[in-house]
Amino acid sequence: MKTVQDILEQKGRLVHTIDAGKTVLDAIGELANKGIGALVVVRDGKPVGLFSERDYTCKVILTGKRSENTPVGDVMTRELVVVGPETEVSECMALITEKRIRHLPVLDHGELMGLVSIGDIVKDIISEQQVVIEQLERYVYYS
Ligand SMILES: NC(=O)c1ccc[n+]([C@@H]2O[C@H](COP(=O)([O-])OP(=O)(O)OC[C@H]3O[C@@H](n4cnc5c(N)ncnc54)[C@H](O)[C@@H]3O)[C@@H](O)[C@H]2O)c1
Question: What is the mean predicted confidence (pLDDT) over 89-115?
Answer without folding.
Answer: 96
